[in-house]
Amino acid sequence: MTNKENTSSVDVTARLTQFIHDCQWDAVPEKVRHEAKRSLLNYFSVALSACFDPTIERAAQVLGRFSSAQQATVIGRGQRLDMLTAAALNTMASNVFDFDDTHIPTIIHPTAPVAPAVFALAETQRLSGIELLLGFILGVEAECRIGNAVSPGHYARGWHITSTCGVFGSAMATGKLLGLSAQQLVWAMGSASAQASGLVETLGTMAKSVSMGNAARNGMLSALLAQQDFDGPARPLEGVRGFLNVTADSPDCLSIVSELGSRWELLNNTYKPFPCGVVLNPVIEACLGLAKSPVLLKQGLDAIVRIELVGHPLLRQRTDRPNITTGRESQVSAQHAVAVALTRGRAGLAEFSDEAVSDPALRDLGRRVCFVEDASFAVEAATVKLHFESGEILCVEVDIARGARAKPLTDQDLENKVRTLCEYGGSGCHPEPLIDAVWTMDRASDVGQLMRLVAGQTQK
Amino acid sequence: MTNKENTSSVDVTARLTQFIHDCQWDAVPEKVRHEAKRSLLNYFSVALSACFDPTIERAAQVLGRFSSAQQATVIGRGQRLDMLTAAALNTMASNVFDFDDTHIPTIIHPTAPVAPAVFALAETQRLSGIELLLGFILGVEAECRIGNAVSPGHYARGWHITSTCGVFGSAMATGKLLGLSAQQLVWAMGSASAQASGLVETLGTMAKSVSMGNAARNGMLSALLAQQDFDGPARPLEGVRGFLNVTADSPDCLSIVSELGSRWELLNNTYKPFPCGVVLNPVIEACLGLAKSPVLLKQGLDAIVRIELVGHPLLRQRTDRPNITTGRESQVSAQHAVAVALTRGRAGLAEFSDEAVSDPALRDLGRRVCFVEDASFAVEAATVKLHFESGEILCVEVDIARGARAKPLTDQDLENKVRTLCEYGGSGCHPEPLIDAVWTMDRASDVGQLMRLVAGQTQK
Predict the structure, then answer these.
(1) How far apart are CA B344 and CA B351, in angstroms?
(2) Which of A418, B199, B243, B261 could form a disulfide with B193 if both were Cys (CB 3.0 to 4.6 A apart)?
């Protein structure tokens, strides 16, 4: 009980909510403001890519029956639903391909549960771009700090941390934008704590999207309830039977409130260049380089006898999957990733689809992959060696893969991601006005209008 | 890991859902059928009592904004909302006073998350009384068996077990009534597992009602999603990262499928005679007897110098609360319960309200209460001794309190509970037609019509 008593002695809920209540735009460093825009650009790119995915289609069909109004945009679908339902569907869409952002310390996908909430709200009440950005930044701050406190035990036990912590992020972002009092923010935390759910067991199935959508929806609901003085416990996070103690064995409670206002969790956010498990990043980057090599072009793929992947042991542990049957599995299969990158010279969503997986030529090339584990490699690094029947060896080393914290995607990369994924999703939206609107959103007086740019064609 | 591997080796999700899929009315014993009606009678009584409680008022105000249709009855409020929202509010109302039923092995309140779901569905598609009863019975069966498997560690850790297990009950009851295939029922379990939430920390606050309402709502949603082939994991319960292993340290997985079809969990259900913690039942029963005693009437309450409560140690541990300020606290205060029962000769909701608590005479009488712990007493037993200044002692012993499993409320008691609580709630509904309709519901061809009897006056 020592642990629980210690945890309960720090009033982190009160201190975190007071910070969220008090924090003003002036106090947010320029670097954080810019990272927020980058996260939102990445958010729109991934949401636009998945707007007609079967998971979203079926969820929209069922949830749409229970929508009360056409008040908020469902991204890319030419459809408006009530703000809770629209937020839920947009969260699902932005996360369904696991191509969204990653907060490195926790592996939370921070934007998916928070951005849909603040944009849906901005379509029902006039909000400036600055207001929305501040709400978003503070929501992510709450979400990731709570995630820090329960990591790594929480996810290891089986909690889908983006879902469980996302509900707090959505609640705090919404609560900030609704102008809740500090007491009401504590109550919003209470109703959010009652709704925190999501299991790792559901990954790889549609059911995962349910807890993701709920994180955004139920966080908003928590804030709306608190606005009506719907009360809750004083210590929903740190209480003896509160979220931290119940869902983690040794929560680091203090990390929730340490360096508030000077450390910003958005600066730990990263973006994926490829729709794959991040340990594959250096391998794919190397293979895309090799695909353009004159040696390979001359010899041809058939002349490769062995493809050696040298990397951190996690590379083999997480991605040694030779016999896969679905696009989803291909996202964590080194055999598929190597084969498709070498063969097609691309590694986008189309290359990790069910269609790509069914190509026998890729399966054949993948069989030639072998792993060399080397603990001296960082997870961001890998070496790929192609051994040809001629005896020639072609080798590419990647020290730090693009997308890693030390080598983030550039603004230009993120713009290109919007262009590519917008095209892929088939919504008919135009990427350029969207890209401009996100970069300049701190000058928008009614930021909800931005959603028109991602609405898509109205369906018959 | 031994434990987790053992747990995962039994395919309980498949076996439980197959049973739910296959089970027919003929296979349900008469005793279970009758207990279902008793549970439903108790359900309507408690829901009618709380329909205008502030928690329900505020929840209805917020949730009502997001209701898509007037398709299902919100009990007592003269209000119709979409079936998910109506079910959520009815679940909240039936549980908000903690006056609903109790499944003894788990302390789950089994009816609150399940009955609102099946009745809301019955207002949107024609269902016979037999169909609804079967769905309800199977939903409770799933909910309580899952609860058995995680008890007692789950609640002890801080999970609000009615909320966390209720979502499975609602999902299975709804899924049965929708005619889902066995595979779809597994998927419904998957989406339900992703939504299981609720913390003990929220008890005593409005936030508790959020997870209660969600249990009904999200269970229904899980079944509706599964109907559209929205898939989920194969082993949402027993998987290594599934509900059982994540929310309990040593789940008893096999109990979920042992004696399926021969042991029925509804037969472990009990009903409260008083709106209090069950350990107070024998004390209140004794005091209500004493209140009518000629000796006390002659001597008067002022002549009492000491009130001795002899009972199991849990009685003192759970209810020794001398200085309370709210009606909610009074439900677990022996000092208040004794004083109000002796003074007013009643122990209903009015006697455990904020108004009752503010009566200084009760506070004064309560100060004369003292406890004598005696481990030889069962929790259902207590002795109350009144010591008068004359030296006289008046004593009542209760061996088994009414409402205990060994001394259940009679059908007549439950009818009277409907009459009393219907009057208390102020909906203007008439209890007699409702009582008749519940007892005869297995003969109803369109059981959704029963909800007209609990609709209440339409609000202006």
Answers:
(1) 8
(2) B243
Compute the Cα dihedral for B53, B57, B58, B59 and give only its sign.
positive
CB-facing half-sphere around the CA of A182: CA atoms within 13 A? 12
A441 CB neighbour count, 10 Å cutoff: 19
Encoded tokens for A325: 């049957």
From chain B, pick out residues whose CB is under 8 angstroms from the CB of A66: 66-68, 82, 84-85
- Is B1 in the A-facing interface, judged by CB distances under 8 Å? no
Contact A334, A309 (CB under 8 A): yes
Q: Which candidate, B110, B234, B123, places its Cα nearest to that of B177?
A: B123
pTM above 0.90, yes or no: yes
Rounded CA separation A120/A91 (Å): 11
Q: In 3D, which of A440, A458, A34 has the Cα closest to residue A449?
A: A440
Distances (CA, A) of B399 to B129, B283, B334, B351, B379: 38, 11, 18, 24, 9
* Two tokens, residue A18: 């007071």
d(CA B219, CA B143): 11
Interface residue B225 vs chain A (CB under 8 A):
yes
Q: Is the pLDDT of residue B347 over 80?
A: yes
Contact B202/A236, CB-based, under 8 Å? yes
Sequence ranges of the domains in chain B = 2-271+409-454, 278-398
Task: Give the A window 74-103 contacts with B, CB below 8 Å.
Answer: 82, 84-85
Q: How far, rounded to the nearest angstrom, does the alpha carbon of residue A383 sit from its chain's CA centroid?
A: 27
Note the pLDDT of residue A459.
55
* Start-to-end C-alpha separation, chain B: 60
| B230/A207 touch (CB, cutoff 8 Å), yes or no | yes
Radius of gyration of chain B (CA): 22
Helix (H) or strand (E) holding A44, with range, is helix A30-49
pLDDT band, residue B231 (cuts 50/70/90):
very high
Q: Closest CB to A191: pick one of B210, B221, B245.
A: B210
Q: Which of A66, A157, A241 sits opposite B201 (nearest CB)?
A: A241
- CA separation for the pair B123, B34 (Å, rounded): 23
Q: Is A224 on the interface with B (CB under 8 A)?
A: yes
A263 touches chain B (CB under 8 A): no
Residue keyed to tokens 């192609």: A386
pLDDT digits (tens, 9 = 90+) for B138-189: 999 999 999 999 999 999 999 999 999 999 999 999 999 999 999 999 999 9
From the options 3.30.930.20, 3.40.50.880, 3.30.1330.120, 3.90.920.20, give the CATH code of B278-398. 3.30.1330.120
Cβ–Cβ under 8 Å, residues B383 and B396: yes
The topology under which CATH files domain A2-271+409-454 is 2-methylcitrate dehydratase PrpD (1.10.4100)
Query: B201 and A240: CB-CB below 8 Å?
Result: yes
What is the mean pLDDT of the segment spanning B95-99?
94
Distance of alpha carbon B232 from alpha carbon B242, whole angstroms: 11
CA distances from A49 to A44, A93, A275, A433, A438 (A): 8, 8, 11, 17, 17
Nearest to B86 by CA among B125, B52, B59, B55: B59
Angstrom distance (rounded) from CA A157 to CA B183: 27
pLDDT of residue A460: 44
* Three-state helix/strand/coil letters over A152-171: CHHHHHCECHHHHHHHHHHH
Q: CA of A326, closest CA in chain B: separation in Å?
A: 15
